[in-house]
Amino acid sequence: MKFDTAYSLSLDDKLSIYDVRDLNFDETADFDSDNDRFLCPNDACRAAFDTDNALSTFNAKNVNYLRTPHFKNKSTTRHIDGCRYASTHKTATAESDDEREENFPSEFVLTRRQYERKTPPASAEASVPQAPAKTPSNRASESHGSNDSPPEKTSVFAHPVECFVSNIDDKDKLKRMPLKIGDHTATYWTFFKKIEYLQDNKGLIYWGRIKAIKDYTSSFRIDFEKKVWLDKKPYSVNVYLSKKLIENYRKRQAFLEQIKAAVESERSLYCFFYGVTPELKQVPSKKNPDQTFGVFSANIENLDHLIIREAPGVQ
Ligand SMILES: [Zn+2]
């Protein structure tokens, strides 16, 4: 049994490991998972122990990762009898290499999750000399699952992408698991569309192996290896990332680290994006500026919905 969420003491809420990563990289959020404490998400179990009975995190801070991020028990972590997380007795040494993401969110929410830190009201309780010591509450989070039911929604794109990538060898599972984005419901298998088949349907998560990343003055251009065929002719596919968009991005540093590592990488990298569908455009030829050629292209509008990563096992 893996932890789908853990209770964050500082936020008084249950977070997935992808929420934790998103917060760690968010330069506008006052959050550092090293300074937080993550406790068992089972309310009864958490109430039975003090806040030293914490979990640890794996890959909460690596921008680029290969192995699936997760929460895990420390060797000292205890659970009550009947807690569904009690059997997660894996320690750092006993972990196998074939970890995969087992918690499939059934909805990818396009608006970012908001976290409200519990701060004591300033004026109303001015007579209280000190804020009471923080204790874990049993407050259930409505939208992100309460008690020990797995969270059904996520607003972190990396989560459904990790579900897809780490389970790529289990097509039956990907064809079985439902995924909703906006008004569109499908399975993971049909929502993730290889870039060369982007004409099949609009509004999907497109992905493909990266051929090259070009670093221009005002943008990066990601070229995909596979081509799109239209009327028996092959067309290149690319997406543009405006540097202005990156400059204003709340996860700017992490994003630059991701894309700069990708530019220099010799390894196979894949790009996943949602929100735009590349369309056939005529662009001027560099060699002969009088001529144009066709290319399927799109401008990325939301960096939250784009990922560049390795994807072992994917072809
Ligand atoms: Zn527990």
How is this fold's topology laid out?
Elements: E1 6-8, E2 13-15, H1 17-25, E3 38-39, H2 43-47, E4 55-58, E5 70-73, E6 107-108, E7 153-154, H3 158-166, H4 171-176, E8 178-181, E9 184-187, H5 188-191, E10 192-194, E11 205-215, E12 219-224, E13 228-230, E14 233-242, H6 243-247, H7 252-264, E15 270-273, E16 279-284, E17 292-299, E18 306-309
Parallel strand pairs: 6-7, 6-8, 10-11, 14-17
Antiparallel strand pairs: 1-2, 1-3, 4-5, 8-9, 11-12, 11-15, 12-14, 13-14, 15-18, 16-17
Zinc ion (ZN) binds next to loops.
Mean pLDDT: 88
Total number of strands: 18
Kindly state the percentage of residues in helix: 10-25%
Give the SSE string. EEHEHEEEEHHEEHEEEEEHHEEEE
Q: Give unreliable regions as ranges.
A: 91-95, 123-133, 140-147
Secondary structure class reads: alpha+beta
How many alpha or pi helices?
7
> How many angstroms does the end-to-end distance come to?
29 Å
- Tell me, what's the shape? elongated
The CATH topology label of the domain at 192-309 is: OB fold (Dihydrolipoamide Acetyltransferase, E2P)
Q: Which CATH class of the domain at 192-309 is shown?
A: Mainly Beta
- CATH-derived architecture of the domain at 192-309: Beta Barrel
Q: What are the distinct ligands in this entry?
A: zinc ion
Radius of gyration over all CA atoms, rounded: 22 Å
What kind of oligomer do you see?
A: single chain
| Biggest sheet features | 9 strands, mixed
Strand content: 25-35%
